[in-house]
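Could you join me in thinking about how sequence relates to backbone shape in a protein? We need material for that, and I hope you will provide a protein of your own picking. Once you have written the record down, we can walk along the chain together:

…
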Amino acid sequence: MDPKQRNASGTHSTQSRISTLPREIYALSSPAWVGAALLEQYTPILVVDAHTMRAQRVARLLTLAGYRPIVATSPVEAFTRCLRGSWEPEAALIGAVDQANRLPLTRMVEHLAKRRGRELPILALPAFVPELAPLHADPAIPYFHTSSPTSVAFFEELWRLLPQTRALLPEPERTLALDVLPESGLNLIPRTSQRLRSSRRHFQLTLNAAARLLASQGRSFAQWRTLLNDVGLAHAVALTRWPDPSTSVNERKMGDDGGKIGDADDLVVPAVDLTCLNQAVAFSAPEHPQQQLYLWGYQGTEASLHGQRSSVAQRAVRLLPRDRAMQIMLNGFTRELDTVRGEALHHWRLQPDGSYLLVHYSNLYVYGRMWGREPACQVWLGALDATLHYVGQENNWQVRELECSCQTQTGHCVFALRPRT
């Protein structure tokens, strides 16, 4: 099957072979660090449902579709959060509410309508809520991600009420991952995840890196628990090791469970869980979510590198020439991520201008995400910068995201590491 044969939502045209790859790549790219706060892109949606498992599925779907869910099990809890929060939901999805909570529900809706100055759109939750990500890797389609008709149908009524939030747009005719790179002769053939899983150990490390970051900023465990619940990760609360303020910084960094990444019984975490965790971190800092994601990626990678690598190997790499050190770094970086995923999904190539391309297929942290206005891989920018710092190359290279799946909806993201001038 040719990678240009797309699904019905978009097509790819065949154009002439690109002769100067870097020029086209940089011309098509858009900066990953742009614009207003990410939270401004995420429309708040209130979810009230006593059926907690269904509420969690709804929260995950809303998170993947670019909304900011606020999840409550009862109208009283929802009303309390509305009173304390500075946000105003644009719609409410109502599930199971017992008879005793009918009056509080009515009062909550009246209060929100008064505060908004207009009625609050209300939709009833269906009995069945799909679990499949709206945009996902189908093993039968090996080159790009595809939309799930069942999951997309879940949003149709909400998109009818809030058409400006529609997150399934026509795909671009031409992308780096599916067109330019395969034509370039670099042996970069697009592929998608077949396992659709990632490492439990890696998930715990990144989860607890986020917990350490929030704790250092004065957030409470209760706030962290609420964030995880809002993005459909209530089950991850039990995996969190909330830092003890009395422990040292080094003890906090090394406080994760043991175990080896990549063991057969380790690859059990759905890839979409990392995407939801990414959004929880973004939502934790509504005034500067991009910087928060970058800091999470940087600090988490820094702790992981110092915990796994020897200082002798680190010093040896720092003594190598710039390009040799970069290639060793990229080999280690992609090999580690392939182990986390249990399959080869990360590749790098040297370019004629001396820069390096790094491709993440079925990219973790945005897996399952639908369309968004801005690139969303700040966590990877932080991780790459931390790795460059570890090998003493932070002053020699600049990292940039050239293409993000949140715009192309292919599932793949492309990064460039360019020499600093």
